[in-house]
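INFO batch 0412 | record 1 of 1 | parsing
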Amino acid sequence: MANERYSRQVILEGVGEQGQARLAAARVVIVGCGGLGSPVAAYLAGAGVGHLRLIDGDRPEVSNLHRQVFYSVEQSGSKTEQLAAHLQRLNPKVRVQSFGKRLDEGNVHKLLAESDLILDCTDDAVTKHLISDACVVLQTPLVYAAAQGFTGYLALFENRPGGIHLRDVYPEPDPSLPDCATAGVLPTAVGIVALLQANAALCYLLGIGDPPINRLLTYSALDNSQHRVRLQKTYHEPISLATPNASAVRDSLEVVADSLPPGGFTTVFSMLSEAREPALPPGVVRLDGKNPVGDCIERMEDGGRYLVYCNSGKLSLVLAAQVRKARPEVEVYSLKGGVKGVEN
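INFO prediction complete | emitting tokens
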């Protein structure tokens, strides 16, 4: 007799005890435990997906709590630790593994291998390509999702040999694309996209319905509209875990505090507000918070070398990429990890 915990879904046509057993045996990896990943994880755990691996290197921050509703900055622990604890309370029958570290080329194979399904819940273009490339190599299905402003996107790539993958949509990662921190996001838009992503994962694992395989689903929170676009194969270059495009793009834009280039910088720009940084260090210029890209470009000279920093390194990375596009004749870098990385 089916466990009472799952009785409301076991009675569904297409699920049954056999489908519930498939969910219990499934091994799912969730990369990114923010506004997308945390509700995705909760619904998959609630549905009885037996093995969940959570990957995220961040800790809860106040500016994220409007959409990351499972966390508290008052509690100890990283996002993955707090979320894992919540999932175990929600469903003690689910095995949850917590990895409080960022996904990179050094750990991607180990962390994504031997899984049945990967869910990309990140908000970083470079990381998304790293995940996709690894899934292509591992031939592991991937549920891609993104949310920004009032809109969201979803696609399911099975990653069979010669099949469609993320590079058929975005051939190269573009760090200049804004994320939630730079473009803003409506919390309910993120939540709805997360539920669409969790729903696609459950349908795929159960073999029911019509999940968006090789299709891009778009969602608008302003009118609750959805559209599906069938994707075409356009990228034919070989892909391996050694494909340099993922981290190489970011590496060309970032510098770490203990290995700054010789000769220093023409100007160092701060993206921190006056409230966060009341007194600027000597020689540092604060950028206009409303138009940091324009302000930065106006202050630059051809042939100059510039450094930009923010709190976590995310905003400054986007700014550096945007400035490089607009002013390729100047060198501009982002401080990796921001001031938090220096303090830690």
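INFO post-check: The first strand starts at residue 27 and ends at 31.
INFO record closed
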